[in-house]
Every structure is written in structure tokens, then in C-alpha cells.
Fold this protein.
Amino acid sequence: MIKILSVVGARPNFMKVAPIDRAAAARADVEHIIVHTGQHYDASMSDAFFRDLDMPQPASFLGVGSGSHGEQTARVIVGFEQALAEHQPDYVIVVGDVNSTIACALVAVKAGIRTGHVESGLRSGDRTMPEEINRLATDAIVDDLFVTEQSGLDNLAREGHDPASIHFVGNTMIDSLHYALPLARQRKKAHELGLVDGAYALVTLHRPSNVDDVDQLRLLIDVLADVSTRIPMVFPVHPRTRSVLERAGLAAGMPPSIRLIDPAGYVDFLSLMQSAAVVITDSGGIQEETTALGVPCITARTTTERPVTVTHGTNLLVDPVPETLRQSIHAVLDGVIVFPRQVPPLW
Ligand code: UD1
């Protein structure tokens, strides 16, 4: 019997671990437990995902909460060291690129426990993104590198990793998508909001570079408000974004053609995504999900760590400056930009 411990911390981690948990549960020779660091803790950012993905309750919840990068990372390190001593796993899995990923990898590797990173090798090349530092640092220390796309293989080779440690395994986030899609299609969340399938835009924004600065956020909201006279929008608002929108009075001034809603659960969000005309986002994972679904996606960022979504999928990377963003959204809605779509290998 081998005991595997997987770490989840923030919203984008849950769907990456759920398929691993199901695969482990199907084997008699594996015991799999989940430790939740509590980096995300609101019901809408965490509990809803465990429910929607049929995940078992975590064996430990570290309750680290929010804070500066240093504080949050440090609290995960302290809490996870204790959790490892308690659970004594043979193997640790960390996923994605959040602060919990690097913090737990650091603790596990130093405790001499073999550790694997799921979603290894992705690189945006932008070291001002906290996630980029987390990716580089995690891959530098773990034993096994589980890769989702060709660029990951190329990056890890360039960085000189041992080829024997690199495994091209596909994409567990997309495994979760296919698991929940039948339910998401039945859910018809758009209809609940009075929207018509294929005739609305779905918006998410939460990258610090887009939302922490009020002026930048205001520019983006102005573009969305303008385009929403053509197509209605639904915007599930991340807590980070919500606080800036409210502080700047932008939430109160939002036109009725942009529906601000609370962060959506996994199935609700998937439901909104699969019947959207276009998705406008700065998320990492949504670029992959829209690629798998074949839904046009405009990513309001200058770089992506997931280039396969641009070369194979439906993702258009757009510099988040007003005129460029506005023209790109119109071009996609007009059908001027078409996407030669191909599902990436193993997704
Ligand atoms: C984190 C990840 C980011 C990921 C995102 C998905 C890092 C460095 N960043 O960013 O990669 O794309 O999660 O959501 O790990 N808050 C709540 N409730 C919660 C969680 C957060 O109200 O459940 C608020 C807090 O005020 C907090 C802010 O949201 O200060 C931002 O949360 P934080 O965990 O610092 O970073 P994210 O922006 O969520």
C-alpha cells in the first residue's frame, strides 16, 4: 500500500486534484488523502468545488487564509510541516502555480518525501507574475514533473531537467471538465440569469496586473461597458476584484448590461462557459477549458504560460489596453477572427 497526499490550496487546484483522487480510489494498493491549506476559504471559492467535483473532505485543513505573499507562504510552510508529520505519506503531489504549491513542495522535498508536480513546465516568461516564480521554484526542487502540453516539455528540457523525471501525462483540469460537462449542460445557468445561449459574453478578471490598480481596472471596465451595448455580459467577480470595484465605486456604476454575480461554483461556471459566445478573461485555467470546449476566448494579458491554447485552441492573447481589447472583442463577435481548432494531445 502506498500513501499519497495531494495538496489543494486555491480555487484552480480543486479540479486538478479531483481526477487524481478518483483514479487513486479505484486502486486497492493506493491510499489517497487531500490536505487543504485554506489559501482560499470562502464557501464560493472552496466548498462549492468539493461538492461539484464529488471530492472527499480533506484529511487536514490548515486554515492559512489571506495575507501578503510572505505571510501566506510562511503560514502554509509551518502548517504543512505539521500535517506531513501527522499523515506520514510516501508521496506528495502538488498542482498548479499558487503559493500553496511552492510552499508545500519545499516542505515535502526537505522532509525527504518523493514529490511530484502536476502542471509542470508551464512558463509565461514574465517574472513579475507571482505564479511564474512559484512554477520555476517548484519545478527546480521536485522529483517528478508531470506535464500537460508540449511547451512544458520544451521548457523543462531547456532548463536542463533530467529527462527521466519528465512525464507527459495530459491535463487533469480537462479530465474534470469532461467529468462535469453533462451536468453543466443540464444546469442551464445562463437561462437562470435571463441570458440566451450563444448570445452573451462571460467575463472574469482577477490578475493583480489587471485589477489591483484602479485606473487599469477602470479602463477595462469602460471597454466592457461599451461592448455590452452589443452583447450582454455576465461577470462572476473574484473577491480580489470585488474589493477594488467597490472601493473605486465601479460596482455601483456598472451598466445593467453587465451582470455582476458572486464567484460561481464549478458546475455553474462550466455551464456559463460552454454556452457563451465569447469568454473574456485573464485566468490561466480558463484558457485551457475554452480550448477544450471550442469556445472563443480573449485573454487580456500580454503573455500566456499555456501557448498550446493559442496554437491549437480558441485562445486569442490581447494586450489589455482599451483600443486593442475593444477591437479584438468586436473582431471575434463579427467572426473576422476564426480559430483553427484542434484538441491538444492527451487532453
Ligand atoms: C490566487 C493565486 C492565483 C490564482 C487565483 C485563483 C497565488 C499567488 N495566486 O490568487 O494564481 O489564479 O488564486 O483565484 O497563489 N479572498 C477572499 N476569499 C477567499 C480567498 C481570497 O475573500 O476565499 C480575498 C482576500 O481578500 C485576498 C484576495 O481575495 O486578499 C486575494 O486572494 P489571494 O489568495 O491572495 O490571491 P488570488 O488573487 O486569489
